Sequence to fold (631 residues):
Amino acid sequence: MPLPPTIPDPDLPLLQRFAAGDRAALGELAQRFEAPLMGLATGLLGPRQQLAADAVQDAWLRVIRSASTFQARSTVKTWLYRIVINRCHDLRSTRKTPAGPVLRLAEDADEPRPRTEQPTAEHDRLDPLRAALDRLKPDQRLLLLLCYHHDMTLTQAAQVLDIPVGTVKSRLHTALESLRKTLATSLGPSFSAARAHEAAP
Amino acid sequence: MTDTSTTTQTPLERDLAALTAAPALDSARPLWQQALAQHDAAPAPAPRSIFKRPINQRYAAAAGLLLLVSAAIIAAILPARSPGAYPAVDGGALSLADLPTSAPFADSSRSDGGSIGLAKDDLSRAVAAVAEAAAPTPVFEDRLSENASRSSAKAALQSIQSRSEPLKPTSAPAPSSPAPAASAPATATPAFDPSLFYDRLVIRKANIDLKTSSPSQAALKAAALVNPADGEFIQSSNALSDISATVTLRVRSARVDDVLAQLRALGTVTTETQSGEDVTDQMVDLEARLRNERRIETELIALVEARRGAPLGELMSLRENLDRARERIERLAAQRERVGRQVALATIQASFSSPDTPAPTKASEDTFLDRLALATSRGLEDFGRSITKLIEIILGGLLVWIGLGLLALIFIILFRRALRPNSYEPPPRA
Fold:
């Protein structure tokens, strides 16, 4: 999905500078995107920080190798996100990330806590949500995490996924409904209470 | 998320955002620096690619394997059609290599000089020579074999027509004791003529109506036209009336025109019709089936001989099969004889009537409405046959088509995945 010609890509000059040999430009680009990319990779791969770091590092490696051939048919941000998402898919399939929360908790016991400064209580609070996401279809999980990620707009999400914005909206609606149903099934009355609280003004 | 009315996010949406919240990173060793160092330490390897695109090796291997398996399955299903493996006789198919040394049109019991005999050694040699000279493909061999059978049948016909002995009714041959070709008379061995390859075997019929003052006399004269020495005969005669008489003659096909000309001289012709039925294909088919049945019979006899000590049940089963094969052979041979006789002797029906007798009315099928009804009926029959054939094709090939379609679909999916390992990543620029 090409970018409309009237909107300039603010990240393109940095990539072009890097392609021309300016390594510092990559640092500036990383300052803008490394943390958000890491966040998305963490969401996609689970709380295992090392796996997410591997995905992002691999993505940077690809950027370094392909920067000179980038043709700006999409924005740099869209490109970066696509690369990271693909690396996450690859790692998830090759390393067989467990889908269930029980297995994940068992693995977490062997792994050090993530480097994020996320409080443990907050981390534990999100576990049911992670488990519910894992039960969704991969496309729905990706859509939910991408659309609510950082400052991602629906247009950008559509560009990353290479689908129309209208399709993103309809799929997002469906994915949210599925997630709510899954949560209601797993959490039972507590989720219903939360829904009631959510609906209250 | 912007672009939507999500300025007020629900708790669920806030939790979703929290799942991908940007973490605090290790500032000592950023990931991009590690990637840069990794790149410096090991530059990008030369891409192993075809079509200048990266290849997912696993999918490519799976696609290749699928292709190989499909090719093996297709090769196993399709019959081998190489010239070396071409079957001599298989289920009625004819081949040069399997041309018999005895006459195909005559059996042992007919090699007595009065039979429709034909020594086929010459024919086989000639056909083989033509085939060799033309460096035949298997398809050409098919045509040659078919034409060889036709020519042999035609030659047999000629032998009938050229001999002076009358035809004798014969019984079906004993399949296990084929007559040697040498026993056939020399006159019954026509020289090989390549033009016979494309001749047809036709059952000829003719009807002629004449006006004459004395029908019974005319009928007697007509009956005298047959030459019993050539096997010709009077099939039926009704010349008792002075008003009308009918005589049906069976004469050699080659003499039909001559006999008709003589009949025309017996009166005034009011109606004359001729018709012909091409039975070449039927004859070729009969030959092939007969040859196949004889082969089966020979094999069964060999089996019976080899299994003399076998249990009684097995022997009885073999005997039953042998009996059935012999029965089929006799039936086919009789059928072939009948068709051959019809081809050899044409039927001429001559009707004589006095001038006072009203002319026979036209056949009802000559009226427009009857022709229309006949055409409609035939059209409906053809339509029914075509529908049946279509259903046969669809149902018969359905499983094959579904299987091939599935294989093709899997191959396409694997191939696309092999060429596009990262579904969301834009293709690398050249």
Observations:
- Chain A has one domain: 12-199.
- The two ends of chain A are 39 Å apart (CA to CA).
- Chain A touches chain B through 73 residues (CB under 8 Å).
